[in-house]
Inverse folding.
């Protein structure tokens, strides 16, 4: 699997705003719309040609024109060739299952998104895949000390969700490749603008595009991007056969939404910086985490490995009642899960049962509301905690 697949487009010299808008676009055609409209079709006319000759579409489960444009756009940002999936979990499932065989050992983050651990525990182990869990802060040392011997794939999640720890992708990739293991990175919290795992040596970068990439809390999507042609073919075949292909409306909405990714990330990060300033040292707040807060355990590595900050923050309040009081006293911070959207949200993670976190642990997702409004609202809600 060494042949490199063609990377779409060439926006390398442009900034994030330009890349967000122009990714996936071909050259301008007079009379054509600036952004292609969705093509709503399941089967396509075949005519007298056998299917898939001259790039003709045949049946939308395997590919369709709207999906190709969206995949080109996401692949452009990731620096590889993208396959889009119906959800982030469908993308993660493909990344792991398309590469794993019965008897393989894979390493997953013990502190990452809980549904990924459930996927491993409830599904992968049924097919004879041996799963080992290592935490994000521990994985670099684990890999350096030979822990990846006999491992076929290591999945990283950096920054990890929800505790926002960071690991060194390049260092783990070097050790993993020496051991013959593939490296996949769940890049959801960072987004393709915030971190480029493929450039750091990963083999697969995976994202839940339900989060900041689309960013409006109204669509489920996920993707896997790779540079290796064989790996791309493997994943494409897996998607063709298992069928988690996004339809035209989702693909079009995803493409339309990602045009503003740079703007949304900039405001979310500015809001996070202001919120972190408010929360830092506040008597009601413990274990404040944001990888761009000076002194955060993740900040040294994040500042060299990552390209820009985002709006996801975590912290602990005293208990569940304190979280309820905070939410009850706030007008602008909504109680909701997920993150990366235009609305500011607070999620008490222990209520979902999958994370090993205290009852008062919350993940804040800073939206794109005005900074002063968000800070004033949160300050007032913190006052209500007494
Ligand atoms: C880090 C991470 N990976 C994957 C997923 C799964 O994404 P989806 O909900 O789109 O299936 C999530 C969802 O919260 C996530 O936070």
């Amino acid at each position: 699997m060494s042949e490199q697949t063609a990377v779409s487009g060439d926006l390398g010299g442009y900034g994030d705003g330009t890349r967000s808008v122009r990714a996936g676009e071909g050259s301008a055609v007079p009379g054509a719309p600036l952004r292609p409209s969705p093509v709503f079709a399941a089967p396509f006319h075949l005519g007298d040609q056998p299917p898939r000759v001259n790039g003709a579409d045949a049946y939308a489960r395997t590919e369709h024109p709207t999906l190709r444009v969206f995949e080109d756009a996401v692949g452009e940002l990731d620096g590889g060739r993208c396959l889009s999936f119906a959800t982030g979990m469908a993308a993660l499932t493909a990344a792991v299952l398309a590469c794993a065989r019965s008897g393989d050992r894979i390493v997953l983050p013990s502190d990452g998104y809980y549904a990924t651990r459930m996927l491993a525990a409830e599904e992968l182990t049924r097919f004879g895949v041996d799963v080992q869990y290592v935490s994000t802060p521990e994985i670099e040392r684990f890999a350096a000390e030979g822990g990846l011997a006999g491992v076929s794939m290591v999945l990283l999640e950096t920054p990890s969700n929800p505790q926002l720890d960071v690991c060194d992708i390049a260092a783990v990739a070097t050790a993993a490749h020496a051991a013959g293991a593939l490296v996949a990175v769940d890049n959801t919290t960072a987004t393709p603008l915030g971190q480029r795992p493929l450039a750091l040596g990963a083999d697969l970068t995976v994202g839940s595009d339900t989060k900041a990439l689309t960013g409006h809390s109204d669509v489920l999507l996920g993707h896997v991007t790779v540079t290796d042609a064989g790996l791309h073919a493997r994943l494409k075949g897996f998607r063709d056969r298992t069928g988690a292909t996004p339809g035209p409306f989702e693909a079009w909405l995803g493409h339309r939404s990602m045009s503003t990714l740079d703007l949304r990330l900039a405001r979310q990060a500015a809001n996070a910086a202001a919120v972190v300033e408010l929360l830092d040292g506040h008597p009601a707040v413990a274990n404040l985490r944001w990888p761009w807060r000076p002194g955060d355990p993740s900040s040294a590595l994040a500042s060299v490995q990552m390209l820009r900050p985002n709006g996801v923050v975590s912290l602990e309040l005293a208990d569940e009642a304190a979280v309820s009081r905070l939410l009850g006293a706030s007008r602008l911070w909504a109680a909701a899960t997920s993150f990366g959207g235009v609305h500011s949200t607070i999620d008490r993670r222990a209520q979902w049962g999958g994370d090993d976190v205290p009852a008062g642990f919350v993940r804040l997702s800073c939206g794109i509301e005005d900074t002063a409004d968000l800070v004033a609202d949160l300050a007032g809600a913190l006052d209500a905690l007494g």
Observations:
- The chain has a mean pLDDT of 95.
- Residues 16-258 form a domain with the Aspartate Aminotransferase; domain 2 fold (CATH 3.40.640.10).
- Residues 87-89, 92, 113, 115, 157, 161, 186, 188, 208, 210, 220, 222, 338 surround pyridoxal-5'-phosphate (CB under 6 Å).
